[in-house]
Amino acid sequence: MKVVGPVLFWSTALLALAMILSDLFFMYVPSILVTLFWTVFLVAILYGVVRQNLLSYFVRRLVSSLFVIAVIATMTFFMLRLLPGGPFDEEKALPDHVKANIEKKYGLNKPLLNQYWDHMSGIATGHLGYSYKYEGREVSSIIKDAFPVSFKLGFYALVLSFLIGVPLGLVAAAHHGTRIDAAAMVAAISGISLPSFLMAPILIYIFSFGWPINKLFPGFYEWMLHYDILLPAALWHSPRHYILPVVTLGVRPAAFIARLTRTSVLDVIHSDFVRTAHSKGLSEKVVLYHHVLRNSLVPVLTYAGPLVAGILSGSFIVEIIFAIPGIAKYFVQSVFNRDYPLIMALTLLFSVMLIFANLVVDLLYKVVDPRIDVS
Amino acid sequence: MVKYLGILVFLLLMACQPSRDTYVVQDDGTRLKLPYHETLSTVITSEPPKIDWLLSSDTDSSWIEEQIMEGLVRFNLQEPGLKLKPALATHWEQQEEGRVWRFHLRKGVEWSDGVPFSIQHVLDGFERILNPSNAAIAVDNIFPIKNAKLYNQGKLKDFSKVGVRAATPWIVEFELEQPMAFFPLLLTHHTTFPIRLDVIEKHQELWTEPKNIVTLGPYRMIHWHHDSRMVLARNENYWGDKPDIKYLVFYMIGKPATSLRMFERGKIDFMRDLPSTEIPRLSQKPEFEFLPGLRLYYYGFKVNKAPFNDPRVRKAIALAIDRSQVVKVLGGGQVPLRSWVPTGMFGFDDDVGIAFDPQKAKQLLVEAGWGDAKKWPPIVIGFNTEDKHRQVAENIQAQLKTNLGIRVELKNEEWKTFLNGLRSASAYNLFRLGWVADYGDPHNFMAIMTSFSENNRTGWKSEKYDALVAKGLKETDPKERLKIYHQAQKILVEEEMPVIPLFSDVNQLLVSQRIENFHNNVLDLYHFANMRLKK
Known about the structure:
The complex is a heterodimer of chains A (375) and B (535). Chain A is mostly helical. In chain A, 76% of the residues lie in helices and 0% in strands. The two termini of chain A are 24 Å apart. Chain B has 535 residues and is an alpha+beta fold. Chains A and B meet through helix 1, helix 4, helix 6, helix 11 and helix 15 of A and helix 1, helix 7 and helix 13 of B.
């Protein structure tokens, strides 16, 4: 039985790696790989739940989540109807009978409670309906196209933020009170304070327009333009396009994680079991990586739950500035367009992600620190 | 460590494709190369809501439809004057002084899938857009056709009673409600293009996807990555002159500042919708092209509430606004406008409208009993949130303060909230709106302000004006029409003043130096089939 856990863990990791490589090298991820990854991932989680004797807790959480989602859907439905202006209002006003034709087509002429019932039963059976704005496109197909893009962007940004944040925090804590610590924390605070709508243009200006090279060495700049060496200023068509948006999106959480890790490591480093480990004669490295780091990750994980849900559902600003075809801008635009079915679907999507991410994080607590009783 | 460095360098090299060509990864994972010297890239502001030329009503969709489809006639954009040229109809003639029109169809034309074009496709198009169950939005343009409105309202079930029919297998006959001199102009609009019902029947909602769609125009759609980009390729099956540019790429980029960066990096060759705050800088560039278009920008009064229920007060406000200042703030080549019909259109009239005269304005206010600015109720100018509208509103706010001493409040709101506010009588006292020509005839503008028009949001009604507009529509002699529109405009922007025309807005573009044979035009219509790329 002991092998199953590691096998599941490593196959999830390997499949994820395969997807990343396939995406970076071929700009194409075969759908079979995606399906396989999600299957293994879910099986791994379920296995973890069963192993930790959390099945009844897990089921309880799922049932309460369903209730939460129903409440969210209901509130969204009625709040949308309170917004002034309807989906088909445009600068050019419509003749009354044309408006009536449209309302009839979309069932908007029915009594509100009937519409509510249609909507809820649609959601229950998995029919999210057709978008009002992108006529003839199913809401589910919009999400299917746009969500993986945001997911990819968010995923790379997450990986980046953990790869930078955790070591940075660890280094700062290990060199507590020195210049290294100060430098790391200055970097972290700058990263947190620099908003992405400022960060993005600065990065673009430097890495896409070649400032200050374009001013200092115009000849070299021309050469770079000719061979297209500078990074693209926008769009999302190849790995080259990923770099700037991923960095823009990843810097803030990276800085935050660095600070969290540092504080938490400093807390743990003074506890009794670390002193015991030291007095047992273990090397500094082993103590730091094995005893301290693992125990310091609990607060980071707490932050990671909402972070994962937030970052994977995309960032409006980053997607707009870099013209990335992700889901985040629909969160804003669907409201401007009063595209009721799309707004509803996105709200539910975000809720589900938040609930799911929190659930996974709660389960991970148990893995990181077996003393915690999540149920 | 060295090993990892090697991998990193290799990754970077893979990621850098040192070439200006564009690659498109198609649905099946294969890559299509679009060579730089054969590809023109441009930008639209959003995912086209639907490439269904009969049901779509937005500019992004229609711009693409103009490239891949065509109707009975087309505008000749190569020459000024907005003349028509034959397209799917070779020639046409009118009968009964313009109440009946007959269009002779071109023979031997094929759709992009090889099916021959026939008269049934034209008739199907009209049935489809008028059928109430399709809930077409931009349908009112074809209401001049006899019984079209009744059919669209569902009051008439028999389509054969609608005034569009096959006179012979190659002649379409239109019977109108009343004579209309400019009827052929309406047929340039994409809502009158032919359609293939069999394709829609087969693929249902998915018929506009690249693998399903069939078209007749100089280009055809080969790739559509939703929300990202669309690629059109030359239609080798096109009946007329084949376009010089082989591929067109339409990037969907919501933020003008982003598109501008792409343009400045040479990734985009042609862009409209420039960021308004950048206009003063961009107007210095050789790539900048502008032309006052058939676009009216105006302020309207809600005439039901004091003090604007008095025409003298409305007139005083109009007299106190120096339009040249407004235009200067925008700095993009807009032309101050006193008349209702914009510059560049038949019916434009320099003798109509009132000019800046603050002294007279004050005098009128005193006459009307509103001379004391302190006694004014709070005045609210409403507009939808956008830099440009804010710039205009702030300027007008300042002018009214200096010239009349009146304080006005600005209220900007999100688009649909603003439109909803316009419906109420009390949300704003003054509001900004615009109108872009659907077709090149003044009736399009005059009809907005009739008392029964949904687009008249002022609450102002004048039977005299309504009668003049109706008369102008029927009149076939251009000179007589001009006279009628002169009278009607006098009522509108001199005597009653429910609206203040401010300026003709401009079509502002950035056109790369490698594009040749580009002709700007007042309709803001750009057919890439006419353009060429420098080799």
